[in-house]
Amino acid sequence: MTARKQITAQRRAKQAAKKLSAGRKSPGKQSSEAKASVESTPAIQDVKPSPASEPQLVEIEKPVYGGSFLARVEGKAVFVPLALPGEQARVRILDSKSGFSTAELDQLVTAAPERVAPPCPHFGACGGCHYQHADYAAQLAFKQAILRETLERAGVAVPAEMAVLAGEPWGYRNRIRLAFDASGCPGYRGRRSHGVIPVGECPIAAPLLISSALAIAGVARGFAPALRLAEISLFCDSAETSLLVTLLASSAKKVRFDEFALALKDKIPALQGAELLLEGRGGQPSRTVAEWGASSLAYRAAGFDYRVDNGAFFQVNRWLVDALVECVTAGHNGALAWDLFAGVGLFARRLTSTFKHVVAVESAASATAALGQNLRGTRSTPVKADTLAFLRKSIAAERPGLIVVDPPRTGLGPEICELLGGIAAPALAYVSCDPATLARDLRALIGSGYSIQSVTLADLFPQTFHLETVVQLRRS
Prior knowledge:
The chain is of the alpha/beta class. The chain has helices spanning 3-22, 32-40, 42-45, 136-153, 207-221, 257-267, 321-329, 346-351, 365-374, 387-394, 414-423, 435-447; strands at residues 56-59, 62-63, 68-73, 76-81, 88-96, 100-110, 163-165, 175-180, 186-189, 196-198, 227-236, 243-252, 271-278, 287-293, 296-301, 304-309, 334-340, 355-362, 380-384, 402-405, 427-432, 450-458, 468-475. The protein has twelve helices and 23 strands.
């Protein structure tokens, strides 16, 4: 992503944020584009509300984390998906709890100017996306507002200026996971159920992934009933030249997997490797029963070729990986850096060029071998351990000049935050995929003596409510 595109995205987000805070146009001033969207969007047409309640007229107030939007009925919070702030709509209450209700759109009365026709015919029924009915500048504004409110509610003071890292909002995913319906068609889980919604396209995914999924489904039918696929996971490099596939089967008796894989290779020239897992029964985990080809691919990012093994975590947005690495590591240098929750070494590899020594800590078996290879020949030490165990043993070790943390959705937790406060590295970069756990952890880190230098919203998941955040902290 060029600097010009990033600046443009930031400007659009600021303009949309001003619109959200200043209020909406009056109901009689909706644009022709918005009117057309109301009439044509599958998000509205696909909704089949429960007849349990009569439609109630509400005004949509703001976005909330999770993909819905807040309205109120007699003062009670009502969460409505597929709406937009400033819109008037008739909704049906589907579920009412003591503190809030959930509802579905029954009729859109007035449309917000930010409403657009979603490009995906599956939007609304499919549970993968939440914001395709809003223009991209509005999506960025939603996420900024949600992030700021979440942090401030936890008592974390946010800088007045929040940077935005954004790029092309379509075709960005390098990894998808699909399930199969009873007829063997691949699709995503539904928005309102766990049922499979068969898909013929997915505009947020790299085109290779969907075309490959459809090809796999076709080949699998020729191996039925011996092979019955339940799910598939597909991962490709940013250029769509290499593909890894994991297939989860509910039945795979006497399957000639090499023959099956070669048939896939004939349909998918980019296929480098495939593995077949059999579903566990009685609470047992799935197990690998067959493999073909390579178990990893080379992923070019941030100036390096990373080995990424099948099943290992890697950032999903192929357009923004380089920019994310720059956002996390730029301006940091010194004698020693720690990269905790290092994965395959995305940040650690870059840090080796600015620090004399880098310690990269990772516990996942799917990533540790690749981490060692990706750091080979550099001034670094890969450590196979979970972060908490590493910190407990390292409290008296040499203090690093920088610590990078990129934890899972559960965040760091109290003990890790306490240990980090005791180690007292001068700089700490926190990469988060959940604003609630980020807010909790930041409050603890600030209490131990850190202060926030910058907050960057990294929109790695356009069209969805998910957001990534990079927070740079310094020791006070």
